[in-house]
Write a structure and sequence with these properties.
The chain is an alpha+beta fold. It has a domain of 123 residues: Beta Barrel (OB fold (Dihydrolipoamide Acetyltransferase, E2P)). It is built from 3 helices and 5 strands, in the order H-H-H-E-E-E-E-E. The protein has a 5-stranded mixed barrel with strand order 1-2-3-5-4. The longest helix is centred in the first third of the chain and has 21 residues. The chain is globular and about 35 Å long. About 4% of the residues have low confidence.
C-alpha cells in the first residue's frame, strides 16, 4: 500500500520537531524539581523590600558575582549583583539590576573560580536578610541558601596580533609565527 504524499511530508517535520525538543529540553541549568518548587510570581524587588516576609520561599535568581568570601564555618558567602534572567535562566548583560543579594553555600567554593565578574544562576531558599557594609554604608542584602548553583561559561575573545604578517601574495601568512621556518 502506498503512503499518501501528506504523510511523506510530515515525517521529516516530526524528526525536526523531535530534534528541537531534544536540543532545547536540556538548556535550563536548574533542575526541573527546583524549577517546579520555585515561586515564579515572586519578583526580586518584592523580596528586596521585605526579605523576612518571604522566608522559606524558593527562588531562582542570577547576576554577576561581586565577591566570594570563605567563612570560618566552611561555608561560602557570594555577593551577587542581581540581573534579570533570560529564557535559559542566564543573567542578561544589559538588564537593569534590582540590587544585590547574598548566596550562602554550605560548602567551600574556590574564590578563584567563583570570582568577580562571573555570571551565576542560583536556586535556593530565602533565609531572610543580612546587613553588611557596602562601601561606608550599611546595606540590607536578601540572603538565599543555595540548593543549586550554576556558574556560566566565560566567553573568551580572540584578539588578532597587533600587526598582520602577510605572505608574498598579500594574503595572511598562517606560518608567520612558526619557530622553525
Amino acid at each position: 500500500m502506498e503512503k499518501s504524499s501528506r504523510s511523506q511530508l510530515s515525517e521529516p517535520l516530526w524528526g525536526f520537531g523531535l530534534l528541537l525538543f531534544i536540543l532545547f529540553s536540556g538548556c535550563a541549568p536548574i533542575s526541573k524539581e527546583l524549577r517546579a518548587e520555585a515561586d515564579k510570581t515572586l519578583t526580586f524587588q518584592q523580596v528586596f523590600q521585605k526579605p523576612e516576609a518571604y522566608k522559606g520561599k524558593i527562588v531562582i535568581w542570577g547576576g554577576e558575582i561581586v565577591q566570594t568570601i570563605n567563612q570560618e564555618d566552611k561555608t561560602t558567602l557570594i555577593e551577587v549583583l542581581q540581573r534579570p534572567l533570560d529564557w535559559q535562566e542566564e543573567p542578561k548583560e544589559t538588564g537593569p539590576s534590582g540590587g544585590r543579594f547574598l548566596v550562602l553555600a554550605e560548602k567551600y567554593l574556590d574564590p578563584q573560580i567563583y570570582r568577580n565578574g562571573r555570571e551565576i544562576t542560583v536556586a535556593g531558599e530565602i533565609l531572610g536578610e543580612k546587613t553588611r557594609l557596602l562601601g561606608e554604608m550599611e546595606y540590607r542584602y536578601p540572603l538565599v541558601l543555595s540548593r543549586q548553583i550554576y556558574l556560566w561559561r566565560e566567553y573568551g575573545y580572540h584578539y588578532p596580533p597587533p600587526y598582520y604578517p602577510y605572505g608574498p601574495w598579500g594574503d595572511y601568512d598562517p606560518w608567520w609565527d612558526y619557530p622553525y621556518r
